[in-house]
Amino acid sequence: RTARFALDPAFTIGEADPRLFGSFVEHLGRCVYTGVFEPDHPSADAEGLRTDVLELVRELGVTVVRYPGGNFVSGYDWEDSVGPAEERPRRLDLAWRSTESNRFGLSEFIGFVRKIGPRAEPMMALNLGTRGVAEALALQEYANHPSGTARSEQRIAHGDKDPFGIGLWCLGNEMDGPWQTGHKTAGEYGRLAAETARAMRQIDPGLELVACGSSGQGMATFAEWEATVLAETYDLVDHISLHAYYEETDGDRDSFLASAVDMESFIENVVATCDHVGARLKSTKRINLSFDEWNVWYQSRPNPHPVEDWQEAPRLLEDVYTVTDAVVFGSLLIALLRHADRVAVACLAQLVNVIAPIMTEPGGPAWRQTTFHPFAQASAHGRGQVLDVRVDSPTYTTRKYGEADLLHATAVRAEDGSVTVFAVNRSRTEALPLEAALGRTGLTAVLEHSALADADPDAVNSLHDPDRVTPHPVEGTVLRDGTLTAVLEPLSWNMIRLV
Ligand code: AHR
Protein backbone atom coordinates (compact mmCIF):
# COMPACT_ATOMS: atom_id res chain seq x y z
CA ARG A 1 0.00 0.00 0.00
CA THR A 2 1.08 3.57 -0.68
CA ALA A 3 1.81 6.05 2.13
CA ARG A 4 0.34 9.50 1.57
CA PHE A 5 0.35 13.02 2.94
CA ALA A 6 -0.49 16.52 1.75
CA LEU A 7 1.53 19.70 2.25
CA ASP A 8 0.03 23.16 2.46
CA PRO A 9 2.18 26.20 3.37
CA ALA A 10 -0.78 27.60 5.31
CA PHE A 11 -0.67 24.69 7.76
CA THR A 12 2.47 24.95 9.86
CA ILE A 13 3.66 23.59 13.19
CA GLY A 14 6.07 26.45 13.86
CA GLU A 15 9.52 27.78 13.13
CA ALA A 16 12.32 25.25 13.66
CA ASP A 17 14.71 26.85 16.11
CA PRO A 18 18.28 26.40 14.77
CA ARG A 19 19.09 25.27 18.30
CA LEU A 20 17.31 21.97 17.59
CA PHE A 21 20.66 20.95 16.09
CA GLY A 22 22.65 21.17 19.28
CA SER A 23 25.05 18.63 20.73
CA PHE A 24 26.81 17.84 23.97
CA VAL A 25 30.39 17.57 25.20
CA GLU A 26 30.73 15.91 28.59
CA HIS A 27 33.90 15.10 30.51
CA LEU A 28 33.20 11.43 29.96
CA GLY A 29 35.46 8.81 28.42
CA ARG A 30 37.21 10.22 25.35
CA CYS A 31 34.73 12.92 24.41
CA VAL A 32 37.07 15.71 25.54
CA TYR A 33 40.50 14.08 25.79
CA THR A 34 41.61 12.55 22.46
CA GLY A 35 38.19 13.61 21.15
CA VAL A 36 37.93 17.38 20.75
CA PHE A 37 41.23 18.04 22.59
CA GLU A 38 44.54 16.30 21.90
CA PRO A 39 47.53 18.68 22.00
CA ASP A 40 49.92 16.01 20.64
CA HIS A 41 47.76 15.15 17.65
CA PRO A 42 49.22 16.07 14.23
CA SER A 43 46.13 18.14 13.45
CA ALA A 44 46.06 19.99 16.81
CA ASP A 45 46.02 23.79 16.73
CA ALA A 46 47.84 26.06 19.18
CA GLU A 47 45.09 25.51 21.76
CA GLY A 48 45.31 21.71 21.50
CA LEU A 49 42.02 21.33 19.62
CA ARG A 50 41.92 18.65 16.91
CA THR A 51 41.24 20.55 13.70
CA ASP A 52 40.17 17.34 11.92
CA VAL A 53 37.40 17.01 14.53
CA LEU A 54 36.53 20.71 14.30
CA GLU A 55 36.04 20.34 10.55
CA LEU A 56 33.66 17.43 11.05
CA VAL A 57 31.77 19.32 13.77
CA ARG A 58 31.27 22.19 11.32
CA GLU A 59 30.13 19.78 8.61
CA LEU A 60 27.71 18.21 11.09
CA GLY A 61 26.11 21.63 11.53
CA VAL A 62 26.12 21.83 15.31
CA THR A 63 24.52 25.02 16.66
CA VAL A 64 24.69 24.58 20.44
CA VAL A 65 27.17 22.71 22.63
CA ARG A 66 26.05 21.67 26.10
CA TYR A 67 28.91 21.29 28.62
CA PRO A 68 30.47 19.91 30.91
CA GLY A 69 27.88 17.24 31.80
CA GLY A 70 25.80 15.18 32.19
CA ASN A 71 26.32 13.25 35.36
CA PHE A 72 29.86 14.66 35.52
CA VAL A 73 28.63 18.16 36.33
CA SER A 74 27.00 17.15 39.60
CA GLY A 75 30.40 16.72 41.26
CA TYR A 76 32.22 19.44 39.32
CA ASP A 77 33.99 22.47 40.80
CA TRP A 78 34.24 24.89 37.91
CA GLU A 79 37.07 26.76 39.66
CA ASP A 80 39.30 23.71 39.09
CA SER A 81 39.05 24.21 35.35
CA VAL A 82 40.31 27.80 35.05
CA GLY A 83 43.71 29.47 35.32
CA PRO A 84 47.13 28.10 34.35
CA ALA A 85 46.64 24.54 33.09
CA GLU A 86 49.65 23.13 34.94
CA GLU A 87 48.29 24.37 38.28
CA ARG A 88 44.84 22.85 37.90
CA PRO A 89 44.03 20.06 40.35
CA ARG A 90 43.43 16.45 39.39
CA ARG A 91 40.11 15.24 40.79
CA LEU A 92 38.04 12.10 41.15
CA ASP A 93 35.09 12.08 38.78
CA LEU A 94 32.52 10.13 40.77
CA ALA A 95 30.03 9.87 37.92
CA TRP A 96 32.29 7.88 35.61
CA ARG A 97 34.87 6.62 38.15
CA SER A 98 37.60 8.36 36.19
CA THR A 99 40.36 10.86 36.99
CA GLU A 100 39.79 14.38 35.68
CA SER A 101 42.99 16.31 34.93
CA ASN A 102 41.15 19.61 34.25
CA ARG A 103 43.64 20.19 31.44
CA PHE A 104 40.62 21.17 29.33
CA GLY A 105 38.38 23.65 31.11
CA LEU A 106 35.99 26.54 30.70
CA SER A 107 38.26 28.76 28.61
CA GLU A 108 39.22 25.87 26.30
CA PHE A 109 35.54 24.97 25.90
CA ILE A 110 34.56 28.52 24.94
CA GLY A 111 37.49 28.58 22.50
CA PHE A 112 36.20 25.34 20.96
CA VAL A 113 32.66 26.70 20.53
CA ARG A 114 33.94 29.94 19.00
CA LYS A 115 36.00 27.95 16.51
CA ILE A 116 32.96 25.95 15.38
CA GLY A 117 31.68 29.21 13.96
CA PRO A 118 29.99 32.49 14.77
CA ARG A 119 26.55 30.94 15.08
CA ALA A 120 27.48 28.18 17.54
CA GLU A 121 26.43 28.83 21.12
CA PRO A 122 27.55 27.39 24.48
CA MET A 123 25.01 25.86 26.88
CA MET A 124 26.50 25.67 30.36
CA ALA A 125 25.28 23.18 32.93
CA LEU A 126 25.54 24.10 36.61
CA ASN A 127 26.36 21.77 39.46
CA LEU A 128 23.26 21.67 41.63
CA GLY A 129 24.22 18.26 43.02
CA THR A 130 27.04 19.07 45.44
CA ARG A 131 26.83 22.86 45.06
CA GLY A 132 24.30 25.67 44.94
CA VAL A 133 23.40 29.33 44.48
CA ALA A 134 26.74 30.90 45.51
CA GLU A 135 28.85 28.79 43.16
CA ALA A 136 26.44 29.39 40.26
CA LEU A 137 26.67 33.14 40.82
CA ALA A 138 30.46 33.00 41.03
CA LEU A 139 30.65 31.13 37.72
CA GLN A 140 28.21 33.54 36.08
CA GLU A 141 30.28 36.53 37.21
CA TYR A 142 33.54 34.91 36.10
CA ALA A 143 32.13 33.97 32.70
CA ASN A 144 29.89 36.88 31.79
CA HIS A 145 30.74 40.04 33.71
CA PRO A 146 32.87 42.35 31.54
CA SER A 147 35.40 43.60 34.13
CA GLY A 148 35.96 45.45 37.40
CA THR A 149 34.96 42.72 39.89
CA ALA A 150 37.05 40.02 41.54
CA ARG A 151 35.74 37.19 39.37
CA SER A 152 35.74 39.06 36.08
CA GLU A 153 39.26 40.37 36.73
CA GLN A 154 40.31 36.81 37.52
CA ARG A 155 39.06 35.72 34.07
CA ILE A 156 40.96 38.59 32.46
CA ALA A 157 44.11 37.66 34.41
CA HIS A 158 43.65 34.11 33.10
CA GLY A 159 43.90 35.46 29.56
CA ASP A 160 40.25 35.90 28.59
CA LYS A 161 39.68 39.62 28.20
CA ASP A 162 36.30 39.25 26.52
CA PRO A 163 33.44 37.84 28.56
CA PHE A 164 32.15 34.46 27.43
CA GLY A 165 28.56 35.69 27.01
CA ILE A 166 26.93 32.42 28.04
CA GLY A 167 23.20 32.97 27.65
CA LEU A 168 21.84 29.44 28.01
CA TRP A 169 22.17 27.62 31.35
CA CYS A 170 21.01 24.23 32.67
CA LEU A 171 20.05 24.32 36.34
CA GLY A 172 21.68 20.98 37.15
CA ASN A 173 21.47 17.64 35.41
CA GLU A 174 19.06 14.70 35.88
CA MET A 175 18.41 15.59 39.50
CA ASP A 176 15.55 13.06 39.58
CA GLY A 177 17.98 10.16 39.08
CA PRO A 178 19.16 8.21 42.14
CA TRP A 179 22.50 7.76 40.31
CA GLN A 180 23.06 11.51 40.32
CA THR A 181 25.58 12.85 42.85
CA GLY A 182 23.47 14.99 45.16
CA HIS A 183 20.18 13.52 43.87
CA LYS A 184 17.15 15.35 45.25
CA THR A 185 13.41 15.05 45.60
CA ALA A 186 11.35 17.20 43.24
CA GLY A 187 10.50 19.57 46.09
CA GLU A 188 14.13 19.96 47.18
CA TYR A 189 15.33 20.45 43.63
CA GLY A 190 12.49 22.79 42.69
CA ARG A 191 13.37 25.14 45.55
CA LEU A 192 17.10 25.09 44.75
CA ALA A 193 16.47 25.63 41.03
CA ALA A 194 14.10 28.53 41.81
CA GLU A 195 16.55 30.24 44.15
CA THR A 196 19.45 29.75 41.73
CA ALA A 197 17.40 31.14 38.86
CA ARG A 198 16.19 34.11 40.91
CA ALA A 199 19.73 34.99 41.97
CA MET A 200 21.19 34.59 38.48
CA ARG A 201 18.49 36.85 37.08
CA GLN A 202 19.51 39.50 39.61
CA ILE A 203 22.75 39.74 37.63
CA ASP A 204 21.18 39.27 34.21
CA PRO A 205 17.40 39.08 33.73
CA GLY A 206 17.90 38.11 30.09
CA LEU A 207 19.43 34.66 30.69
CA GLU A 208 17.70 31.58 29.31
CA LEU A 209 17.35 28.96 32.02
CA VAL A 210 16.50 25.28 31.79
CA ALA A 211 15.05 23.42 34.78
CA CYS A 212 15.70 19.69 35.05
CA GLY A 213 12.81 17.55 33.98
CA SER A 214 12.86 13.76 34.15
CA SER A 215 15.75 11.66 32.91
CA GLY A 216 13.27 9.58 31.02
CA GLN A 217 9.58 9.02 30.52
CA GLY A 218 9.97 5.67 32.31
CA MET A 219 11.04 7.21 35.63
CA ALA A 220 8.62 6.40 38.47
CA THR A 221 8.41 10.11 39.31
CA PHE A 222 7.78 11.23 35.69
CA ALA A 223 5.20 14.03 35.28
CA GLU A 224 4.82 14.49 39.06
CA TRP A 225 8.46 15.61 39.03
CA GLU A 226 7.85 18.15 36.26
CA ALA A 227 4.68 19.45 37.93
CA THR A 228 6.39 19.92 41.31
CA VAL A 229 9.53 21.52 39.86
CA LEU A 230 7.52 23.87 37.66
CA ALA A 231 5.23 24.87 40.51
CA GLU A 232 8.39 26.32 42.13
CA THR A 233 10.11 27.65 39.02
CA TYR A 234 7.41 28.53 36.47
CA ASP A 235 8.04 32.29 36.44
CA LEU A 236 11.81 31.92 36.74
CA VAL A 237 12.79 29.49 33.96
CA ASP A 238 12.26 29.32 30.21
CA HIS A 239 12.55 25.62 29.49
CA ILE A 240 12.27 22.21 31.09
CA SER A 241 14.64 19.43 30.05
CA LEU A 242 13.88 15.99 28.59
CA HIS A 243 16.39 13.15 28.14
CA ALA A 244 15.76 9.95 26.17
CA TYR A 245 17.94 7.13 24.87
CA TYR A 246 16.79 4.18 22.79
CA GLU A 247 18.28 0.78 22.02
CA GLU A 248 17.21 -2.51 20.52
CA THR A 249 16.46 -5.02 23.26
CA ASP A 250 15.71 -8.77 23.08
CA GLY A 251 16.11 -8.73 19.30
CA ASP A 252 12.92 -6.66 19.01
CA ARG A 253 14.00 -4.57 16.04
CA ASP A 254 10.46 -3.67 15.00
CA SER A 255 9.83 -1.87 18.30
CA PHE A 256 13.26 -0.25 18.16
CA LEU A 257 12.43 1.14 14.72
CA ALA A 258 9.34 2.80 16.22
CA SER A 259 11.29 4.46 19.09
CA ALA A 260 10.09 7.88 17.93
CA VAL A 261 6.56 6.89 18.97
CA ASP A 262 7.84 6.99 22.53
CA MET A 263 9.79 10.20 21.94
CA GLU A 264 6.74 11.99 20.54
CA SER A 265 4.53 10.85 23.41
CA PHE A 266 7.21 11.97 25.89
CA ILE A 267 7.25 15.44 24.31
CA GLU A 268 3.46 15.67 24.26
CA ASN A 269 3.17 14.51 27.89
CA VAL A 270 5.71 17.09 29.05
CA VAL A 271 3.92 19.83 27.08
CA ALA A 272 0.65 18.79 28.74
CA THR A 273 2.28 18.89 32.19
CA CYS A 274 3.82 22.33 31.58
CA ASP A 275 0.51 23.71 30.37
CA HIS A 276 -1.36 22.13 33.28
CA VAL A 277 0.92 23.96 35.73
CA GLY A 278 0.54 27.16 33.70
CA ALA A 279 -3.23 26.80 33.87
CA ARG A 280 -3.12 26.20 37.61
CA LEU A 281 -1.02 29.34 38.05
CA LYS A 282 -3.33 31.29 35.70
CA SER A 283 -0.21 32.18 33.74
CA THR A 284 -0.05 33.31 30.14
CA LYS A 285 3.63 32.33 29.99
CA ARG A 286 4.53 29.18 28.08
CA ILE A 287 7.37 26.90 29.16
CA ASN A 288 9.24 25.37 26.23
CA LEU A 289 11.19 22.14 26.04
CA SER A 290 14.93 21.57 25.98
CA PHE A 291 15.47 18.01 24.77
CA ASP A 292 19.06 18.30 25.88
CA GLU A 293 20.03 14.63 25.70
CA TRP A 294 18.78 12.27 23.02
CA ASN A 295 20.27 9.43 21.01
CA VAL A 296 20.50 5.72 20.41
CA TRP A 297 22.57 4.26 23.27
CA TYR A 298 23.27 0.57 23.91
CA GLN A 299 23.26 0.98 27.68
CA SER A 300 22.58 -2.68 28.35
CA ARG A 301 25.62 -3.95 26.41
CA PRO A 302 28.83 -4.60 28.34
CA ASN A 303 31.75 -2.32 27.51
CA PRO A 304 33.99 -4.21 25.01
CA HIS A 305 37.01 -2.16 26.13
CA PRO A 306 38.94 -2.99 29.31
CA VAL A 307 38.65 -0.08 31.72
CA GLU A 308 40.05 0.38 35.21
CA ASP A 309 38.65 2.58 37.95
CA TRP A 310 40.03 6.12 38.07
CA GLN A 311 41.70 5.90 34.65
CA GLU A 312 42.07 9.11 32.64
CA ALA A 313 39.92 9.30 29.51
CA PRO A 314 38.99 5.60 29.37
CA ARG A 315 37.09 4.11 26.44
CA LEU A 316 33.52 4.42 27.69
CA LEU A 317 30.21 4.39 25.77
CA GLU A 318 31.99 4.07 22.39
CA ASP A 319 28.92 2.70 20.61
CA VAL A 320 29.39 1.84 16.94
CA TYR A 321 26.24 2.72 15.00
CA THR A 322 24.67 0.59 12.28
CA VAL A 323 22.44 1.56 9.36
CA THR A 324 19.45 0.51 11.48
CA ASP A 325 20.60 2.80 14.28
CA ALA A 326 20.93 5.68 11.80
CA VAL A 327 17.37 5.14 10.57
CA VAL A 328 16.03 5.20 14.13
CA PHE A 329 18.22 8.24 14.84
CA GLY A 330 16.77 9.99 11.77
CA SER A 331 13.29 9.20 13.03
CA LEU A 332 14.16 10.82 16.38
CA LEU A 333 15.22 13.95 14.48
CA ILE A 334 11.89 13.88 12.67
CA ALA A 335 10.10 13.64 16.04
CA LEU A 336 11.92 16.76 17.25
CA LEU A 337 11.07 18.73 14.09
CA ARG A 338 7.44 17.61 14.28
CA HIS A 339 7.28 19.35 17.69
CA ALA A 340 9.18 22.48 16.74
CA ASP A 341 6.38 24.58 18.24
CA ARG A 342 7.48 23.57 21.75
CA VAL A 343 10.95 22.03 21.49
CA ALA A 344 13.22 25.07 21.44
CA VAL A 345 16.56 23.39 22.10
CA ALA A 346 17.78 19.84 21.49
CA CYS A 347 21.23 18.34 22.09
CA LEU A 348 22.39 15.15 20.51
CA ALA A 349 24.25 13.30 23.26
CA GLN A 350 27.12 13.35 22.59
CA LEU A 351 29.52 14.84 20.04
CA VAL A 352 32.76 12.85 19.84
CA ASN A 353 33.60 9.21 20.76
CA VAL A 354 30.97 8.90 23.50
CA ILE A 355 27.68 7.72 21.87
CA ALA A 356 28.73 10.07 19.12
CA PRO A 357 28.40 10.84 15.41
CA ILE A 358 32.17 11.49 15.24
CA MET A 359 34.82 8.94 16.25
CA THR A 360 38.56 9.41 16.63
CA GLU A 361 41.64 7.34 17.19
CA PRO A 362 44.25 8.88 19.52
CA GLY A 363 47.01 10.15 17.24
CA GLY A 364 45.00 8.84 14.28
CA PRO A 365 42.08 9.83 12.08
CA ALA A 366 38.57 11.04 12.80
CA TRP A 367 35.56 9.63 10.93
CA ARG A 368 31.79 9.87 10.56
CA GLN A 369 29.50 7.26 12.12
CA THR A 370 26.33 6.29 10.23
CA THR A 371 24.32 8.68 12.44
CA PHE A 372 26.43 11.62 11.31
CA HIS A 373 24.62 11.77 7.99
CA PRO A 374 20.96 12.24 9.03
CA PHE A 375 22.04 14.92 11.51
CA ALA A 376 24.15 16.80 8.97
CA GLN A 377 21.36 16.70 6.37
CA ALA A 378 18.68 17.78 8.84
CA SER A 379 20.81 20.61 10.18
CA ALA A 380 21.65 21.83 6.67
CA HIS A 381 18.11 21.66 5.29
CA GLY A 382 15.77 21.52 8.30
CA ARG A 383 15.69 25.29 8.85
CA GLY A 384 12.47 27.25 8.42
CA GLN A 385 8.76 26.62 8.97
CA VAL A 386 7.88 23.05 9.84
CA LEU A 387 4.78 22.07 7.90
CA ASP A 388 2.00 20.03 9.44
CA VAL A 389 2.50 16.54 7.99
CA ARG A 390 -0.29 14.07 8.77
CA VAL A 391 0.49 10.77 7.20
CA ASP A 392 -1.92 8.16 5.99
CA SER A 393 0.42 5.20 6.14
CA PRO A 394 0.30 1.44 6.15
CA THR A 395 1.17 0.17 9.62
CA TYR A 396 3.06 -2.73 11.17
CA THR A 397 2.77 -4.41 14.54
CA THR A 398 5.28 -3.75 17.31
CA ARG A 399 5.51 -5.39 20.72
CA LYS A 400 6.12 -2.13 22.58
CA TYR A 401 3.91 0.35 20.73
CA GLY A 402 1.16 -1.71 19.07
CA GLU A 403 0.39 -0.65 15.48
CA ALA A 404 2.93 1.88 14.22
CA ASP A 405 3.05 3.77 10.91
CA LEU A 406 5.64 2.50 8.45
CA LEU A 407 6.17 6.08 7.30
CA HIS A 408 7.49 8.68 9.71
CA ALA A 409 7.89 12.09 8.07
CA THR A 410 8.16 15.83 8.41
CA ALA A 411 8.68 18.71 5.98
CA VAL A 412 10.41 22.06 6.44
CA ARG A 413 9.80 25.12 4.25
CA ALA A 414 12.79 27.44 3.90
CA GLU A 415 12.51 31.20 3.52
CA ASP A 416 12.92 30.92 -0.27
CA GLY A 417 9.83 28.65 -0.47
CA SER A 418 11.77 25.43 -1.13
CA VAL A 419 10.70 22.45 0.95
CA THR A 420 12.70 19.53 2.33
CA VAL A 421 10.90 16.32 3.25
CA PHE A 422 12.58 14.03 5.79
CA ALA A 423 11.11 10.55 5.82
CA VAL A 424 11.84 7.15 7.30
CA ASN A 425 10.54 3.81 6.06
CA ARG A 426 10.39 1.53 9.08
CA SER A 427 9.77 -1.66 7.10
CA ARG A 428 12.72 -4.01 7.28
CA THR A 429 11.71 -5.87 4.13
CA GLU A 430 9.41 -3.80 1.90
CA ALA A 431 9.97 -0.69 -0.14
CA LEU A 432 7.32 1.93 0.63
CA PRO A 433 5.66 3.85 -2.23
CA LEU A 434 5.02 7.47 -1.24
CA GLU A 435 2.63 9.99 -2.75
CA ALA A 436 2.43 13.56 -1.51
CA ALA A 437 -0.09 16.14 -2.68
CA LEU A 438 1.76 19.45 -2.89
CA GLY A 439 -1.10 21.42 -4.44
CA ARG A 440 -0.74 24.88 -2.90
CA THR A 441 3.00 24.85 -2.27
CA GLY A 442 3.96 26.14 -5.72
CA LEU A 443 6.71 23.51 -5.88
CA THR A 444 7.54 22.18 -9.32
CA ALA A 445 10.69 20.06 -9.22
CA VAL A 446 12.70 17.53 -7.25
CA LEU A 447 16.16 18.90 -6.57
CA GLU A 448 17.50 15.86 -4.80
CA HIS A 449 16.40 12.61 -3.20
CA SER A 450 19.07 11.05 -1.03
CA ALA A 451 18.72 7.93 1.10
CA LEU A 452 20.66 6.15 3.80
CA ALA A 453 19.90 2.45 3.41
CA ASP A 454 21.94 -0.68 2.82
CA ALA A 455 21.54 -4.31 1.84
CA ASP A 456 23.18 -5.01 5.22
CA PRO A 457 21.15 -3.30 7.97
CA ASP A 458 24.02 -3.89 10.40
CA ALA A 459 26.67 -2.21 8.25
CA VAL A 460 28.82 0.32 10.12
CA ASN A 461 31.61 2.81 9.49
CA SER A 462 34.91 2.10 11.18
CA LEU A 463 38.54 3.17 11.40
CA HIS A 464 39.38 0.78 8.57
CA ASP A 465 36.31 1.48 6.45
CA PRO A 466 35.21 5.00 7.45
CA ASP A 467 32.87 5.59 4.51
CA ARG A 468 31.27 2.16 4.22
CA VAL A 469 27.86 3.80 4.87
CA THR A 470 27.00 7.15 3.28
CA PRO A 471 23.79 8.56 1.77
CA HIS A 472 23.25 7.72 -1.90
CA PRO A 473 21.16 9.43 -4.59
CA VAL A 474 17.76 7.89 -5.39
CA GLU A 475 16.52 7.88 -8.98
CA GLY A 476 12.91 8.00 -10.11
CA THR A 477 11.47 10.50 -7.62
CA VAL A 478 9.21 12.88 -9.54
CA LEU A 479 7.01 15.88 -8.96
CA ARG A 480 4.34 16.15 -11.64
CA ASP A 481 1.06 18.09 -11.62
CA GLY A 482 1.42 18.88 -7.92
CA THR A 483 2.02 15.28 -6.85
CA LEU A 484 5.30 13.94 -5.55
CA THR A 485 5.90 10.25 -6.07
CA ALA A 486 8.81 8.36 -4.60
CA VAL A 487 9.75 4.91 -3.42
CA LEU A 488 11.43 4.66 -0.02
CA GLU A 489 13.83 1.73 0.23
CA PRO A 490 13.30 -0.75 3.08
CA LEU A 491 14.75 0.49 6.36
CA SER A 492 15.76 3.87 5.05
CA TRP A 493 16.27 7.50 6.04
CA ASN A 494 15.38 9.87 3.18
CA MET A 495 15.83 13.51 2.38
CA ILE A 496 13.82 14.87 -0.57
CA ARG A 497 14.49 18.48 -1.55
CA LEU A 498 11.80 20.22 -3.58
CA VAL A 499 11.85 23.60 -5.32
O1 AHR B 1 25.05 11.08 28.01
C1 AHR B 1 25.45 10.13 28.95
C2 AHR B 1 24.76 10.33 30.30
O2 AHR B 1 23.39 10.07 30.15
C3 AHR B 1 24.79 11.71 30.89
O3 AHR B 1 25.94 11.95 31.63
C4 AHR B 1 23.60 11.71 31.80
O4 AHR B 1 23.05 12.99 31.97
C5 AHR B 1 22.65 10.72 31.15
O5 AHR B 1 22.17 9.80 32.05
UniProtKB/TrEMBL annotation:
This is non-reducing end alpha-L-arabinofuranosidase. Belongs to the glycosyl hydrolase 51 family. The keyword Chaperone does not apply. InterPro entries: Alpha-L-AF_C, ASD1_cat, GH, Glyco_hydro_b. One of its GO terms (biological process) is polysaccharide catabolic process. Keywords: Carbohydrate metabolism, Glycosidase, Hydrolase. It comes from Streptomyces populi. Homohexamer; trimer of dimers. It comes from the Bacteria. One of its GO terms (molecular function) is alpha-L-arabinofuranosidase activity. The keyword Lipid biosynthesis does not apply. It catalyses: Hydrolysis of terminal non-reducing alpha-L-arabinofuranoside residues in alpha-L-arabinosides. Residues 292-492 form the Alpha-L-arabinofuranosidase C-terminal domain. Its EC number is 3.2.1.55.
